[in-house]
Design goal:
It is built from 9 helices and 8 strands. By secondary structure, the protein is of the alpha/beta class. The strands form 2 sheets. It has a 5-stranded parallel sheet, with helices on both faces. It has a 3-stranded antiparallel sheet with strand order 6-5-7, with no helix packed on it. The longest helix is centred in the C-terminal third of the chain and has 15 residues. It is globular and about 40 Å long. Bound molecules: adenosine monophosphate (AMP). Adenosine monophosphate binds next to helix 2 and helix 3.
């Protein structure tokens, strides 16, 4: 199964992708995590991406298209995958289509901007494996430590309130048009953000017929 998770920054794509990945036994591919790892390792891609990310802007399409086509060609993707945070523009969606990739479902997590602004201040991510947590909604077992790999949990630089506002604007202008794009291909599945992480996962699995 090839899936896309769409939604505003902080909608819960990363958290849901990790849970769906375990349930469906397919890998999650997050361009945000790949880019953060590239920055941490000081690679040329990381150097190119950093200023865009820090400002809450999108990294240029050609950089993203290069990263994602390379990643999807790897062995673990042959039975399907979940894309988290990509595509984010019509150009990226068209590039995936031109590469012959089809999607079984594009799940759009619906949540208000107000709820996002409230939520982002509590988000923490593992600086080693990229797993996401929330101080209240999804706390780690041990404070400041990743349940998966023992890595350190940190606040993302781009989760500062002003940057979140910029990212929401980018989302509405550049990414939301993807809903019409995938609706016209008959694969869009909107899911309302529910009161808990578990309830949202159940709602997603339901629209996937699981
Ligand atoms: P995320 O972790 O998905 O919220 O992504 C964090 C940041 O990485 C975004 O604000 C962008 O600067 C960059 N980024 C991640 N994925 C993409 C993408 N598909 N297209 C453009 N920029 C991206």
């Amino acid at each position: 199964m090839n899936l896309i998770l769409l939604g505003a920054p902080g909608a819960g794509k990363g958290t849901q992708a990790e849970r769906l990945s375990k349930e469906l036994q397919i890998p999650t591919i997050s361009t945000g995590n790949i880019l953060r790892a590239a920055i941490k390792n000081g690679t040329p891609t990381g150097l190119k991406a950093k200023s865009f990310m820090d400002a809450g802007k999108l990294v240029p399409d050609e950089v993203i298209i290069g990263i994602i086509t390379e990643r999807l060609a790897e062995e673990d993707c042959k039975n399907g995958y979940i894309l988290d945070g990509v595509p984010r523009t019509i150009a990226q969606a068209e590039a995936l289509e031109q590469a012959g990739i089809q999607f079984d479902a594009v799940v759009s997590i619906e949540i208000s901007d107000e709820a996002i602004m409230q939520r982002m201040s509590g988000r923490r991510v593992c600086e080693d494996c990229g797993a996401s947590y929330h101080l209240v909604a999804v706390p780690p077992k041990q404070e400041g430590v990743c349940d998966n790999c023992g890595g350190k949990l940190v606040q993302r630089k781009d989760d500062a309130p002003e940057t979140v506002k910029a990212r929401l604007e980018v989302y509405h202008n550049e990414t939301e048009p993807l809903k019409d794009f995938y609706e016209s291909r008959g694969v869009l599945k909107p899911v309302e953000n529910a009161s808990s992480v578990e309830a949202t996962t159940r709602a997603i699995l339901r629209v996937l017929g699981r």
